[in-house]
Amino acid sequence: SGFISLLKNGLSKFGAPSGMLELLSQWTGAHEDYPKIPEAKGAIRAIRSEPFFIPLYELYLTYGGIFRLTFGPKSFLIVSDPSIAKHILRDNSKSYSKGILAEILEFVMGKGLIPADGEIWRVRRRAIVPALHQKYVSAMISLFGQATDRLCQKLDEADSNGEDVEMESLFSRLTLDIIGKAVFNYDFDSLTNDTGIVEVLLLVLDSRTVEAVYTVLREAEDRSVQPIPFWEIPIWKDISPKQRKVKASLKLINEILDNLIAICKRMVEEEELQFHEDYINEKDPSILHFLLASGDDVSSKQLRDDLMTMLIAGHETSAAVLTWTFFLLSMEPSVMSKLQNEVDSVLGDRFPTIEDTKKLKYTTRVINESLRLYPQPPVLIRRSLEDDMLGKYPIRRGEDIFISVWNLHRCPKHWEDADKFNPERWPLDGPNPNETNQNFSYLPFGGGPRKCVGDMFASFENVVAVAMLVQRFNFEMALGAPRVEMTTGATIHTTEGLNMRVTRRIKPPIMPELEMPVLNGNSGGLSE
Ligand code: HEM
Fold first, then answer.
1. Within the chain, which residues score under 50 in pLDDT?
2. Please, are residues 475 and 326 in contact by the beta-carbon 8 Å criterion?
3. Do 171 and 500 touch, CB atoms closer than 8 A?
4. What is the tens place of the pLDDT at every residue in 296-352?
């Protein structure tokens, strides 16, 4: 078998046609003593009725770190083994593409950074990563604070009216407000739009935009869980009212994006530009502004695709992280009170600064642990571009692969009390856990060359939001709220929302002048 492998390698180096190599592999298959990947059978029905990563967990316990799942003519490899995940994502990443994921997302993200592969990806990644430099992320801290403060005002109102709140949709609004501003300087929050020229122009479209974004997102999710791509059926595509709405929504978003790009281009042209590594425009610190100022030479379609990709990537994921963090906190009051103690001692009643975020260590651990239990997305998707070895198993080119981050993060052999929400498992004085220091047993932001570009951004965003919310409010599940269950598309959602009772913890900050007489009690002249 050693000779056959040598022969195959030699032939491929000399450019033998792949068909011939394949024939040779088939012929040698019987001779080479490679083990065969375990095959999970008869699991199809289960897959359709639950969020699909749950039955995949059960199958993982039975079949191990890599197994094959077959649906009629389609088959998938399910990977839950850290060293195989590391091989695919990092060590041999050049041999894998986004596969099905790119096909599903194409209609909304085009060739944006998440679905893109090959040369387009390489060029765009190199252009976009510098835009999220440290100074940019620090500048975003105050944006995170302001946006969370607006959410706090809504919660205050609900508390005053004695109403319960559905937090999942509020988190979705929060992260959309943040990412719109951060990526292309667009205020999705119409309440606080200042009335500059740009805002007036866009205000008209505003209410429709938010809805359009949601329509498109739902569609992307529906598609990602449909076994048959019925949206490609020509006639159906044109008559279905939902499909027409999606098309109209996309058109509207694209128009807005084109508009924002044009406006930003004009701003950049009028600016006395001194571009450098940590360039930032004070009036418009957005990623779009950085890209245009950097002289990024790109078609407006590609730029639009990248902006749309970041809008969706940065919005859905963070909203899901916040949703599940608050769900977990409501189940574990001891963690909540420890968290509130930390926030009180670090922040008092101030807004968080960048220095504070570094001191909010337990808060960070709470989010690390929430990302372990509810990774967003719960699986990563790849397709092999060449034959390869996964552990001891040979695989062919063209295999569709799901790396189950859910399974990696809940492996009972690797994690003590794997299903328990226990932020204490990460020591406060230890390193911030990531895929490198956890050797691919924990990969909340993926790993290798296609790791999330927004990891720092998202970490600060989540720390600021969680800290400010628990600083001001107590959270518990609403009385009679439906059981919180999972459903999935790109990220993990609840089936019926996260209905909570939110009550104010602290009085709004008191003006110092008014505080004095109260402190002096009876002796002050003002108290009577
Ligand atoms: C990629 C998670 C926030 C932009 C990824 C990947 C993961 C991830 C797991 C890797 C996907 C794969 O390998 O297939 C998260 C989580 C977030 C978050 C959990 C929030 C808590 C953000 C934000 C942005 C962003 C805020 C934008 C500012 C991207 C982009 C990619 C990506 C552009 C693709 C990178 C590439 O393929 O080169 N994210 N993300 N993400 N993320 Fe995030």
1. 1, 30-31, 44-47, 190-208, 508, 510, 514-528
2. yes
3. no
4. 889 989 999 999 899 888 888 999 999 999 999 999 999 999 999 999 999 998 999
d(C-alpha 500, C-alpha 444), whole Å: 26
CB neighbour list of residue 312: distance below 8 Å, 6 or more residues apart: 108, 109, 217, 220
DSSP state of 90: I
Q: How far is CA 365 from the centre of its chain?
A: 18
Torsion, Cα 321 324 327 333, to 10 degrees, reads -60
Planar angle of CA 381, 384, 387, nearest 5 degrees: 155
Helix (H) or strand (E) holding 499: strand 499-504
Helix or strand holding residue 458 (H, E): helix 455-472
Burial-class residue 17 by CB neighbours within 10 Å (0-12, 13-18, 19+). exposed
ipTM for the predicted complex comes to 0.99
Mutation probe of ligand 1 site: the residue of 452, 459, 461, 462 with most atoms within 8 A of C-beta:
452
Q: Which two tokens stand for residue 372?
A: 């372990």
Query: CA-to-CA distance for 84 and 480, rounded, in angstroms?
Result: 44
Ligand 1 contact via 504 beta carbon (within 6 Å): no
- Residue-by-residue DSSP string for 113-159: TTT--HHHHHHHHHHHGGGG-HHHHHHHHHHHHHHHHHHHHHHHHHH
Q: Look at ligand 1, atom 5, and give the residue with the nearest C-alpha.
A: 452
Element (H, E) at 68: strand 66-71
Tokens 């070895």 belong to 389
> Residue 388 — φ and ψ, nearest 5°?
-155, 175
317 touches ligand 1 (CB under 6 Å): yes
The tokens for 502 are: 């939110």
Angle between helices 18-29 and 2-13 (to 10 degrees): 170
User: What Cα–Cα distance (Å) separates residue 106 from each residue in 123, 167, 404, 410, 515?
Assistant: 18, 30, 22, 31, 59
- Does the Cβ of 321 fall within 6 Å of ligand 1? yes
Q: How far is the CA of 414 from the centre of ligand 1 (A)?
A: 25
Ligand 1: atom nearest CA of 125 is 38
* DSSP strand pairing (492-494 vs 499-504): unpaired
**491 and 458 Cβ atoms separated by less than 8 Å:** no
Q: Is 82 in the pocket of ligand 1 (CB under 6 A)?
A: no
Is the CB of 323 within 6 Å of ligand 1? Answer: no
* CA–CA distances in Å: residue 56 to residues 6, 59, 63, 377, 438: 37, 5, 10, 14, 22
Is-contact 74 399, C-beta < 8 A?
no
pTM (2 decimals)?
0.85
Diameter over CA atoms, the chain? 100
> How would DSSP label each residue in 216-236?
HHHHHHHHHH-SS-GGGSHHH
Ligand 1 centre and the CA of 507: distance in Å?
37
